[in-house]
Amino acid sequence: MPGGSWRARGEGLLAAVAGAFTLAQLLLARPTMGLGWDEVVYVSQVGTEAPAAFFSAPRARGVSLLVWPVASWSSSTTLLRVYLAVLSGLALYLALRAWRGLFPPRVLAGAGALFATLWVTLFYGPQAMPNLWVAFGALLCVGCFLRARADRLDGRALWGVLAGAAVMAWMRPTDAVWIVLPLLVLAVAARHRGLGIALAAGLVAGGAEWVIEAFVSYGGLRERLNQASRIQGDLGWNLAVDDQVRSLVGSTLCRPCDGQMPHPVVYAWWFVLPLLAACALAIAVLAGRTTRTAVPLLCAATAAFPYLFMIGYAAPRFLLPAYALLAIPVADALLHLAKRPNGRWRPAAAAVIGVGLAGHLAVQYAVLDRTVERSTAGRQDWARSAAELHRLGVRPPCLLTGHEAIPVAYYTGCSSGATRGHNANTTTAEILRTTRSIPVGALTAPGGTPPRYARDWERHRLDGLEVRIAPAPGAGGRA
C-alpha cells in the first residue's frame, strides 16, 4: 500500500479509535474514582499525599515513573486519571501505528476497537497499573519486530523494538521476558543480529533498575525472584484457566478464586477468542503471509502461559498483553469472514458477526459498570475511614498497621506498617517505639482479633473496619 494512501486512511482511523478510547475511559471509568490498593503503592513512591508504601519484590517502578509528572506535584486523583486516560489513548495509537504496512488500516482500527472495548482495558486505562502498558509495549515491540524482519534496512523499526521491550521491562520485567522470548528465538534463527541486539538492549534498558534494586534492597536477583514467587503463591505448575474465567465477572483480584462460575454469557467471548485466532492463522497460511499472524499469536501464548498455568489465583489484567496481541489477527479473521475476496460483504456472515459483537459490547459494558461501581464504593469506604481517623486525632505524621493498612494509611496521610505477611516492613518493638512520638492505630476487620501489642488500646469503629488507637504520647500508655 503506498505510503500516502496509508496516511490518508490509516492515520485517521487509528486516531479516531484512540480518541474514542480516551473518551470512553473518561465517561465510563469515572475519573473521580479513588486510588486502589496497588495504585496506592505505585503513586505513593513519588506522590505528596502520604509516605511511600512498602514496595514488595514483584513490583517494578515503571508505573511510579509514569505518574511522576502529575503525582509529584498534585494530589488530585481526577487529574491523574485524566492524564492517564489521554496518555493511554496516545499509546494505543502509537502501538497500532507500528503495524502499518503489515495489515490494512481497517484491520488495525478494528483490532484497536476490539481491544479498547474490553471492560478490563477500559477499567485499567486511567489507572496507575502496569499491565496495560505492558500490552502497549508488546504491540509496539512485535509490530516493529515484523517490520524490521521484513526490511533489514528499517532502522526506525529497530528502535521501535528496543522501545517496546524497554517499556515492558520497565513495567513488569518478568512479563517482558515471556513476551520477548519467541522474538529472541526468531531473531537468532534468522541470524538477524540487529533484532537480537535491539531486543536485548530493550530488556536491559527497562529492567536494569529492577535488577540493581534486587541487589541493593532484596539480597540479590535470585532472592528477589524467590520472594516474588512466594508472594505470588509459589510459582509452578498450577492450572488457573478456571480462575481466569471466574474473574471475568469483574473481580479485579480473584484470590482465593473459589467462587462460582459466572453466567456463560459473561465468558463466551473468552472461549471464542482462541477459535478466531486459529481461524486467523489458517487464513494467513492460505494467503501466504503466515509470519505476520503467527508471531503475535505466539507472543500472546507466551504472555498468557504463566498466568494460565503457573499461578494459583487470577486477575483479568494479567492477560491484557495477550488480548492486545490477539486483537490484530482476530480482527483480520473477522474481516475475512465477513467479506468475500472481491471485497463484497457476505450478508449472512456479516449479520452474525455484527450481532455477536453487539452482544459482546453489551456484556463488556455491564461488567465494566458493575466493576466501577463496586470499586468506587470500596475506595469511598477508605476515604470515610480516613476522615474518621482524622476526627479521632490520627493525623500526619502517623502510622497505621493491620488489615487494609496500606490503602487506609494513604488516604489518611499516614505511613503503613506490617510485622508479617507479604508487606512486612517493621517489628512490634519499632511500632511501640513509634507510639511515643506520633499517633499509631491498628486496623482489624469488624470483630477481628487485634495484634497483642494493641489489645489494650482504645477501640473505635470505622466504615467497615475497627481501629485501636495507641494512647497519645505522654498520656501514660505503655511504651
Protein model, in words:
Keywords: Membrane, Transmembrane, Transmembrane helix. It comes from Streptomyces cyaneochromogenes. This is Glycosyltransferase RgtA/B/C/D-like domain-containing protein. The termini are far apart. With 479 residues, the chain is mainly alpha-helical. The model has no long low-confidence stretch (mean pLDDT 95). It has a domain at 380-469. The longest helix has 45 residues, at 347-391. The protein has a five-stranded mixed β-sheet. It has helices spanning 3-28, 37-44, 62-71, 77-97, 105-116, 119-124, 131-150, 155-171, 173-189, 193-217, 221-231, 241-247, 264-287, 290-309, 320-338, 347-391, 405-412, 428-434; strands spanning 399-402, 415-417, 440-444, 458-461, 466-469. Helix content is 63%, strand content 4%. The protein contains 18 helices and five strands. Helix 5 crosses helix 15 and helix 8 packs parallel to helix 10 (193-217).
What features would you highlight for this structure?
479 residues; mainly alpha; five-stranded mixed sheet; 18 helices; 5 strands; 4% strand; globular; transmembrane; membrane; Glycosyltransferase RgtA/B/C/D-like domain-containing protein; transmembrane helix
